[in-house]
Every structure is written in C-alpha cells, then in structure tokens.
Amino acid sequence: MHSAAQEKVFDFRILGPIEFHVSGRPVPVPGARQRALLCLLLLESGRTMTAARLIDGIWGERPPETAAAQLRICVSRLRKLLAASGLPGSISTETGGYRLQAPEGCVDVQRFGGLLREAADAESGGRRADAAALLREGLALWRGPAADGLESPAVRAAAAQLDEERVAALERYFDLEIQLGRHHPVIPELMSCAAAHPFREQLHCHLMLALYRAGRQVEALQAYRELKRRFADELGIEPSLPLRIMETKILGQNPELSGGQSVQLLAG
C-alpha cells in the first residue's frame, strides 16, 4: 500500500514567483526569508549548502549578528511546513549546512533543464519537430521572471542565469519553427519577445526572417530600421554584422531566405 505522501503530487516552482503546490493545491510559504531559503535549497536540490552560503544568499554582504540563529529558525519553520504538507525529513542537517532532497521530477527548474537536454539530443539527431515540441514544453513551465519577488543578491544572480537560459531556449525554438516552415504562427510571439528584449539581436534576426517568409518584406525591413535607430540612440553603435547581412539579403530578396536553413547560417 502506498503511503499518503507517496500518493501526493509535489510541485516546487522557481520559474516565476516561488510557489509550492501539493496535488494541485498551493501551499503558502510565508516570509521573504523563508521563500529565499526554499529557493536556494531547491537550486541545489540533493546537494549540501553551507550555512555560510545560505546566510549570504538570504542577507547579502551585511548579515545581522544573529543571522546563524535566524537561519536555524527559518530552516525549522520550513521543515515544519514541508512535513505538514507530506514531506517529512526532506531537509537534513549536514556537516556545516543543510540539504533539501526534493522528490524526483517535482522541481520545475530541473524539468526545464531536462527538456532542454532532450531537445538538444533530438535536434542533433535530425528530429527538428520533436526538438521544437520539447522546447515549447519546457518554456511552458515559465510563469514570469525566475524567483520573481525575491531580492537577495545570490537569488537574483541565479535567477539572471535562468532567465538567460529561457531566452536562449526561445531563440532556439523560434529558429526551429522557422526552419520547419511554421513562421506564420510564431510571428506574434516573436514580436512580443523582441519588444521585451530590445537588444537581443538573435530574436530580431528571427523576426526579420519570419516576416520576410510570411510575405511581409516591408515590415521585416522596418523592424531592422527601428532596431538600428535604437542601437544608435541608446548605445551609439551599429547592429552586428549578422543583422546587417540579413537586411542586405532581404533587400535583395536573396533566394537563400526561402529555404529551411537556420538563422545562424543565413546571417553568417
């Protein structure tokens, strides 16, 4: 017979505001310090984090003199919350620190990483449609900026890396969709992503190519000109060579643009 804990479905969410769900029901994690602690332990799930790293992660460079005692209180409260939710003993005290052992597959950031690896394997095996589907599944896990609402420097640094992985996955996804001839349906999302990341040149390359292949050459060139103006006004530089190559090919209606090549090859 399965235990009650085994029958429950646990879901720890970092890809957006920190959340903990049990069988679809949200379990509030009170207090910014408790949420920061949970986030830090989840990011290193299965590995020991020293008390010093946790203190630095929660309080930054100037922790209070009572930080060690406050950390122990935070750990105790988090243990009680997890135990009451069906995960007793999930936080263990190790030499000099603590370790959270989350059930396999219940942390969204781990699922995201696994799907990225599966997508890379599928793409290297020539299965572009499968790769795009896996990337789409991984991107669907995101609910906003990683660890949204937590301000500790250590959490923000980890979150910035995760956010970068998300944008890189979006770029890969759009490239695959365009290669597969599915440029029409991704244009609205591409426009939104390019607007949200105004200096992310790869996204703008994808947008220009998708618009061109959709028969919207004027809009593709306008997207480049707006980007060029933004670079000049805000950065004082020209767009990179790949973007300039893409503009030249669009202006000349280069036959290469009609094929199923990746943006990297076309703009290289």
Task: Offer a concise description of the structure.
This protein is 60% helix and 8% strand. The chain has 268 residues and is mostly helical.
Describe, in plain words, how this protein is organized in 3D.
The protein has helices at residues 4-7, 32-43, 51-59, 67-84, 108-124, 128-139, 153-179, 183-196, 201-213, 217-235, 241-251, 263-266; strands at residues 10-13, 19-22, 25-26, 48-50, 91-94, 97-100. By secondary structure, it is mainly alpha-helical. Among the domains are: 4-100, Orthogonal Bundle (Arc Repressor Mutant, subunit A), CATH 1.10.10; 184-268, Tetratricopeptide repeat domain (Serine Threonine Protein Phosphatase 5, Tetratricopeptide repeat, Alpha Horseshoe). Strands 1-2-3 form a 3-stranded antiparallel sheet, with no helix packed on it. It has a 3-stranded antiparallel sheet with strand order 4-6-5. Strand 5 and strand 6 form a beta hairpin. Helix 9 (201-213) packs parallel to helix 11. The radius of gyration is 23 Å and the shape is elongated. The model has no long low-confidence stretch (mean pLDDT 93).
